[in-house]
Amino acid sequence: MKKIIVVFSSVLLMSLYACSGNSNANATTQEVIQQEEIIVDVTVNQFKDLIATEGTVLDVRTPEEWAEGTIPNAEKMNYHDDDFATQIERLDKTKPVFVYCKRGGRSASAAEILKENGFTKVYNLDGGITAWTEARSEEHTS
Hints:
Layout: H1 2-18, H2 29-33, E1 39-42, H3 44-50, E2 56-59, H4 63-66, E3 75-76, H5 84-87, E4 97-100, H6 105-116, E5 122-125, H7 128-141
Parallel strand pairs: 1-5, 2-3, 2-4, 4-5
């Protein structure tokens, strides 16, 4: 019985943690920069602040998606290309990479590939360009 309670408590705690959302949502941009993790998920506002610093903005969507619009100055590398891992080799591994896709799934996977290939800091846009576009349209209607 004690084992069941311990297992249940562990599962409950992990569920609460997983459902808590982006733990960086209330962090300042400076607090986000100071995190030791190589991959950091960031909000739209944090991403906006971060891309104003030195680094590479990387759009990992498809060419069809790029035609719908991109974040200014983004490098385009299709995550689905067979040579994606080779393409990223031309980026500077010592500078931050600010990666995004449509909703955040591909960019999270791309961030892992960047990490595996020796990149030192990767910021993943939580919610992707969809969240970016929604936030920008809210700014213009407010």
